[in-house]
Design a protein that fits this description.
The chain has 480 residues and is mainly alpha-helical. 72% of the residues lie in helices and 3% in strands. The protein is built from 18 helices and 4 strands. It has a two-stranded antiparallel sheet with strand order 1-2. A two-stranded antiparallel sheet has the order 3-4.
């Protein structure tokens, strides 16, 4: 019988009493009473912890933004921008090293420690009344989140069977982003809570306001998530490097390089990262340009932009549910490529519209495709990457996500302005095609360019993705 490093023998419960060899990298078996939708009771607890943690994160995000605007004085926009930049910087510089630690350390302990760390850091936030202080608090929170998220993603394949990973990732997407509207509602209700608490004389020494009550709520969610994760049955899969050169920087750097070499040598993983990263550059342009497109092209103003966001969210929700139903019958690699190409076509189609309703239809379809790209991309990486490398790969993916979104947010308005001036100078912002007259403002041209970037990424991924399992992905990191 094949033996695995760190394998343990457990009785099978049959009359022969023969032991069964458990591979630590395999999904952990659960009791028959497990909720079927979630694949295992352990994943259900992890998902609930993610829901609680994400709810607190969004409430804290809104609260910290409100505090930044309040303490920013005459330049609240600049204060908010500085504080939010702290959410991007750690990912660009520290994520690869964080991935090394995630692959070396017990991932359950990492998630518990990061959740507790968030709660402890947040306890100091009500005393902070400067933008610089908010920046460093946000920086610490992001570093802890940078450890928590890849550890969680790398742990999911240990808790559910491979055929249930797409459903698990769909549920994870719901937990991560579906809690945002709930968080905004809770934040609004906390104003009433703060008003009620302010009447108690025993609390007169505390600064009772909506933001601080929201921060205290965030602290409770962080500690609650730590307690929930601590109950998981998620043993550490020890590697050969766990007991060697534990604190040597050179060893850690070599492991970072090992993760990058793996990405470069695996066409499958490289194609997924390329599709997701460049897709975010094109799709991320919608965020800063959406209000301008609604006002200039569609004539819908702020209300029109709100409807476009509603369509995007609705399409994403439908896509997640639909994918959860049909994912077992889908070839994940090919479906991923189709979804990436679909995103590009939807952005081009939506930007070509001049009326709100057809633009909403394209944007809704974009949401459907984008949800599929996220779920399938994560599923492919989870199933194809060895457990010993998974933390580094997800940390690198999160780095790419942050860099690409930052590029999209920063470049889209500049590019739109440049293209608008060129269109005005060369074409008077109008092109005549037969009997059709097409307006060419810079915002439309920029969105078309974003769609073309996504299409190019999808075509490149199509050349790289293989219908069968990538041999490089199944190889072990260490010599076995």
């Amino acid at each position: 019988m094949a033996q695995y490093p760190g394998a343990v023998a457990e009785p099978t419960g049959d009359t022969a009493g023969q032991p069964r060899i458990i591979n630590p990298a395999d999904p952990i078996p659960d009791r028959p009473s497990t909720i079927r939708l979630f694949g295992s009771g352990s994943f259900f607890r992890l998902w609930l912890a993610q829901v609680v943690s994400s709810l607190g994160d969004w409430i804290g995000f809104v609260a910290i933004t409100a505090i930044a605007a309040r303490v920013g004085g005459s330049s609240p926009e600049a204060s908010i921008g500085l504080v939010l930049s702290a959410r991007l910087l750690p990912g660009m510089f520290l994520a690869p090293m964080a991935g090394v630690f995630i692959d070396r350390w017990n991932r359950k302990h990492v998630m518990v420690a990061c959740s507790i760390g968030r709660g402890v850091v947040l306890l100091f936030l009500p005393a902070v009344d400067t933008v610089v202080g908010l920046f460093f608090i946000s920086l610490l929170l992001e570093i802890l989140g940078l450890m928590w998220s890849p550890a969680k993603e790398a742990s999911v394949p240990r808790l559910v069977a491979p055929e249930q990973l797409a459903t698990a990732n769909s549920l994870g997407l719901v937990a991560a982003y579906g809690t945002f509207p709930v968080a905004t509602l809770v934040f609004a209700l906390l104003a009433k809570v703060a008003q009620s608490l302010s009447h108690y004389d025993a609390l007169s020494g505390l600064a009772i306001n909506q933001e601080n009550v929201a921060i205290w709520f965030y602290v409770l969610t962080a500690f609650l998530a730590a307690v929930m994760i601590s109950t998981l049955r998620l043993p550490h899969h020890r590697t050969a490097s766990d007991g060697e050169e534990r604190l040597r920087v050179s060893s850690a750097l070599s492991e970072v390089a090992e993760g990058w070499r793996y990405i470069g040598s695996s066409p499958l993983v490289r194609a997924v990262m390329l599709g997701m990263a460049t897709g975010l550059i094109g799709g991320g342009m919608l965020v800063p340009l959406g209000p301008v497109f609604s006002r200039v092209v569609l004539g819908g103003g702020s209300a029109g932009f709100g409807l476009l966001l509603t369509g995007l969210g609705t399409g994403g929700a439908v896509g997640i549910v639909l994918l959860s139903v049909v994912q077992r019958r889908l070839p994940h690699e090919r479906a991923f490529v189709v979804a990436v190409i679909g995103c590009g076509m939807c952005i081009i189609g939506g930007a070509s519209m001049s009326a709100l309703l057809p633009a909403m239809l394209f944007v809704s379809t974009l949401g459907l495709c984008a949800g599929a790209v996220y779920v399938l991309g994560f599923t492919i990486i989870q199933t194809q990457v060895d457990d010993q490398l998974r933390g580094r790969i997800f940390a690198t993916l999160y780095t790419l996500v942050r860099v690409c979104l930052l590029l999209a947010f920063a470049l889209a308005p500049i590019l739109s302005s440049v293209l608008d001036k060129l269109s005005d100078r060369l074409l008077d912002r109008t092109a005549v095609i037969g009997a059709w007259e097409v307006a060419l403002p810079g915002v439309r041209l920029t969105l078309w360019l974003g769609g073309l970037i996504i299409l190019a990424a999808g075509l490149l991924a199509l050349r790289s993705l293989r219908p069968s399992r990538d041999p490089a992905a199944t190889s072990s990191v260490s010599a076995e």
